[in-house]
Amino acid sequence: MSGFDLGNFQTLGFLGAAYPWVKAAHVTFVIFWIAGLFIVPRYYIHHQATTPGSAEDRAWIEREDRARTIILAPAMLIVWALGLMLAVHLGAFGQAWFSAKLALVVLLTAYQGWIGAYGKKLAAGQRDLEDKKLRLMNEVPGILTALIVVLVIVRPF
């Protein structure tokens, strides 16, 4: 086998020499995703104070839609794709720290689903949440992100 060392391939995992590049891309898109998860609910806090149907209301609807479609959705999909590639590469499935991390990422994904649903309610003129509750919901991605970072870096179990 000229130029191909099967032992080296197994040591490097299926990503081979691309592993650090995939990891760097994963971290970059995690940053984009979390930034979007922070900004869109913050937009909602300001949007909620507008009069339904007003020019300001329509401007917030457009901003929120752009953030969800240009930042949130693509970043989340890329994070998932690259993260699953990394998990396969590392053989992380079945490890307790990874199972916990995966559960938290699923919660972040569900949170993003909630963001989309609440954005549709705001666009329809509904203001279902009190400002205080909406502000508390804005803390969810920060808490989950901190827990995920601990699981990935410390691997406490």
Give a structural overview:
The protein has 157 residues and is mostly helical. It has one domain (13-154). Helices cover 78% and strands 0% of the residues. The chain contains six helices and no strands. The chain has helices at residues 6-12, 19-48, 55-90, 96-123, 131-137, 140-154. It starts with 5 loop residues before the first helix and ends with a helix.
Question: Topology, please?
Answer:
Elements: H1 6-12, H2 19-48, H3 55-90, H4 96-123, H5 131-137, H6 140-154
Helix pairs in contact: 2-3, 2-4, 2-5, 3-4, 4-6
- Please state the CA-atom Rg, rounded to the nearest Å: 19 Å
Shape summary: elongated
Number of separate helices:
6
What is the structural class? mainly alpha
Q: What is the makeup of the main sheet? A: none
Helix content: over 70%
Q: Count the E strands.
A: 0
The average pLDDT score comes to 92
- Secondary-structure element string: HHHHHH
Number of domains: 1
Give the DSSP E fraction (strand runs of 2 or more residues).
Answer: under 5%
The termini sit apart by 40 Å
As residue ranges, the low-confidence spans are 1-10
